[in-house]
Amino acid sequence: MSHPLDPAATRCAALPVPPGKIIAVHLAYASRAAQRGRRPEAPSYFLKPVSSVAASGGTAQRPAGTELLAFEGEIALIIGTEARHVSLAEAWDHVGSVTAANDLGVYDLRRNDKGSNLRNKGADGFTPLGPALLDARAVDPAALRVRTWVDGELAQEDTTDTLLFPFAQLIADLSQHLTLERGDVILTGTPAGSSVVGPGAVVEVEVDAPQAAGAPSTGRLRTTIAQGQVPFDPALGSLPAVDDAQREEAWGSREAAGLPPLETLADGASAAAADPADGAAATPAAGPADGAGFTLTAAQRERLERAPVAGLSAALRARGQHHCVIDGLLPMHPDRKLVGTARTLRFVPAREDLFATHGGGFNRQKQVFDTVGEGEVIVIEARGDATAGTLGDILALRARTRGAAGVVTDGAIRDYDAVAEIGLTAFSAGPHPSVLGRRHVPWDSDVAIACGGATVLPGDVIVGDSDGLVVIPPALLEEVLEATLENEARDEWIAARIAEGEAIEGLFPMNAQWKERYATWRRAQ
């Protein structure tokens, strides 16, 4: 049996060469998208370390202190020739071979990965590959089949004619951004049926081409699950954490996770909510899944702290962004700056039957406040209805404890003085004593929302001060920041000249003579 510490030559024995990188697709099969209740418009990816590769017949350890180790049977593509900026028509020509893969992951470790999947999917032994290779020239990429067995029972079966994104699209898309080198592995996503396995379970994955001559097969990739013994050190990083929403997603359904059906929960005590978009089981708000969120660097945060919202607003307008201001909200602490990335939460208008199923228990509102990441801003869509609270002191304390940058809501805040004392930076439409259910039902999260007349996407940059709030698309951040800080430097210089007694005419705005004097001063800085 292979061991996580085996040398690369042993772990990668089934491969032509040890891979330089492993790229995995978040969501790829229609069956999985239906199960998760979300259908991506375009493929998205994450990286797995090469040290996670294992050979068939090996073991994978469920880390000590975790419960939700899940298997994902997948088709792995192995690049045969370098691919960079290749077309759809030629993309498949760069695939050398196909094999079976098991993209193992621990849901207990997803919380702080923000979609990167490094901790929950990067452990030694978490990417078994093999045992045999299929020649890519001998198979039709649209006629492959992947099957997974757990302890001899079939758990997953699907074919590549149901893919959301054909293999050629994945290769061509990736080649737009980076060079795919010989030996690189692309894990192409898993179909429905992925679930949790415990120590002693045996997981087998097979990829075959049943319609091709001779029905070629990789054989069964076999992995035995073992129990890890080394605990995580709480002094080094975040610890494993689960809730019923994570259990539902890891197991694949509430029933499989041993949770009661939503309709049987008394008083609306729901651990997950039905998704209004498709009626499928909810995707819990434990951080944006199937997609990495934007993260501010320390340098960007420092520069945003120095950039006034009025200046950022002007820089956005100069770039054609006229609808990036959140209107009508007041700061709880006018002397504080708010800087962070958006974590979104949406309320729908109150309706008694909906609040009974979605309003109680560990609902979407509580999920978001319980899982908000450090430096994130919870942005709430309450339709501008300030006649009921959208959060109170307990939730504010939880967000503050988790390191949230703040909260922005176009509704009201309950326990206003207590929230202010807790110290969570907040913008709102004001105080209100009423509880959530008077006007709002917590419905979904980590989706596009409308707050104060502005569209906010998860990962958007939120900046607030005594002048108000702006939403900065991440793609424009550097350009907007540079322009804002340059304009601030220029305005400060102009103000200094006016303080010295210079007249406004020709200086504000600057004529050619003043521009030259300013440029000379700027070069000297």
Automatic annotation (TrEMBL):
Q: Which GO terms describe its molecular function?
A: hydrolase activity; metal ion binding
> Which annotated residues bind substrate?
G392, D393, I394, L395, R414
Listed A to Z, the keywords are:
Hydrolase, Magnesium, Metal-binding
Q: Where is this region: Disordered?
A: 269-289
SUPFAM superfamilies assigned to the protein according to its UniProt record, in alphabetical order: FAH, RraA-like
Q: What CDD domains has UniProt attached to this entry?
A: RraA_family (cd16841)
Which residues does Mg(2+) bind?
D415
Cofactor names from the entry are:
Mg(2+)
* The keyword Glycosyltransferase is annotated on this UniProt entry: no
Give a yes or no for keyword Hydrolase in this entry: yes
**Pfam families found in the cross-reference section:** FAA_hydrolase, RraA-like
**Which PANTHER family does the record match to this protein?**
ACYLPYRUVASE, FUMARYLACETOACETATE HYDROLASE FAMILY PROTEIN (AFU_ORTHOLOGUE AFUA_1G02370)-RELATED
Q: Kindly provide the name given to this protein in its UniProt entry.
A: Fumarylacetoacetate hydrolase family protein
The protein's organism comes out as Brachybacterium saurashtrense
